[in-house]
Amino acid sequence: MFTPDENIFSDEYPLRENYQPEQIQERDNELKKYRNALQPVINGAPPKNIFLYGKTGVGKTVATNYLLDHLQEDAGEYGIDLTVIKQPCNNISSSYQVAVNLLNQLRGPDSRVSTTGYPQQDVFNMLYDELDELGGTVLIVLDEIDNIGGNDDILYELPRAESNGYVDDVWPGIIGISNDFTFRDQLSPKVKDTLCEEEIHFPPYDANELTSILGDRAEKAFHDGVLNDEVIPLAAAFSAQDSGSARQGLRLLHKAGELARSNEASTVEEKHIRSAQKELERDQLEDGMRELTTQGHLVLCSVSAFEITEVAPVRTQEIYERYQNYADRISADALGERRIRDHLSELSLHGFLTVAERNDGFHGGSYYEYELNVDLGSVLAVLSEISRLEDIPEMLESAADREGLT
Ligand SMILES: Nc1ncnc2c1ncn2[C@@H]1O[C@H](COP(=O)(O)OP(=O)(O)OP(=O)(O)O)[C@@H](O)[C@H]1O
């Protein structure tokens, strides 16, 4: 049933998220600053704390992995005792949890501590003991550090552990990474002074930079001569216009290759990039729809019902009546009409609905009408995955079938 790909991909891995490229393209200035900030480690001096910030997909993690790999290699050569600990903070919301997770990384599986139940200072002390035992320089990389919000004690405590006398034989340093611009500004002044000793901003990539990043990866990923000339510049242009993210560009290229492969085409062309762009946009919208609350889902069901009977665009009042009916059907507490107006505008802001303001000629006022801005089939597919909605999506799907809409 399966045979290796002979036409499109020679090796898909370089297009994947966790592939570590040998070279980092188009980041010379940032890498230079970053390398300088890490230099004290090789000089046998206490490390600096470093804070990297920039939007998603602009190379913060890949640059960190690249430099720290080299640093570890060179530290070994010069007899420097260096340990690097990487702690993703995506599911962590406090300094306490960061400390427990670090502690458990350092301890063996048999002596892990539970994530609740200890006073914070006890966890910090246990962590200091573990760090002391390690000794040397310990660089702690906290990715997505913004998740800890205002609960930022650890960012002050850890870098000062040595000067405050909590540890004797170790120099801990923090590398904080964030794509939330407000996080840095909200840090307490003492934390900001400590953590942001060296700040490095990673700006979004422009189309030329993305062309070179994607070009390098494509060379490894696709068979020779498979990519038409316009493919990489177009993927780069789409991603630069939207987010400036290399991740988005790589996904686009990968998806375009997959589409070409499944269409049994021998080359990847502009049309594959355009279709890939549409598919990825739809995936993104669908993810957004899945993340709505039950109330949001019920409002979406209501607008979909009018879409099926072809009476959309439809006024708030009518949507509200249908919504009440559905809320009742699944025994959810129905919200008031004002809150449903808020939900409708939120759904429009997310791009799930379009809204039009109409003038009421008779009364002289104005009102809003809504309709779906997303393919009905995709909306129903997402809604049918949500068990809390019970049989509503099924009813909508049968109605759509009867109308010949699916
Ligand atoms: N300058 C670059 N050269 C080569 N590859 C890059 C470069 N910048 C980003 N990439 C690639 O783009 C993808 C996303 O990069 P990375 O994970 O470093 O972004 P990030 O800024 O850390 O994003 P996030 O904040 O979402 O974690 C990775 O696959 C990475 O290999």
UniProtKB/TrEMBL annotation:
* Residues that, per the record, bind ATP: 58-62, 205, 217
- Transcription regulation listed as a keyword: no
Is-annotated flag, keyword Nucleotide-binding? yes
Query: Domain Cdc6 C-terminal: where?
Result: 300-383
Query: Which residues are in the AAA+ ATPase domain?
Result: 46-201
Give the InterPro entries listed for this entry.
AAA+_ATPase (IPR003593), AAA_22 (IPR049945), Cdc6_C (IPR015163), Cdc6_lid (IPR055237), ORC1/CDC6 (IPR050311), Orc1/Cdc6_arc (IPR014277), P-loop_NTPase (IPR027417), WH-like_DNA-bd_sf (IPR036388)
SUPFAM superfamilies linked: P-loop containing nucleoside triphosphate hydrolases, Winged helix' DNA-binding domain
CDD domains in the cross-refs? Cdc6_C
Q: Which Pfam families match?
A: AAA_22, Cdc6_lid, WHD_Cdc6
What keyword terms does UniProt attach to this protein?
A: ATP-binding, DNA replication, Nucleotide-binding
Q: Which family does it belong to?
A: Belongs to the CDC6/cdc18 family.
Name of protein: ORC1-type DNA replication protein
Q: Taxonomic lineage per UniProt?
A: Archaea, Methanobacteriati, Methanobacteriota, Stenosarchaea group, Halobacteria
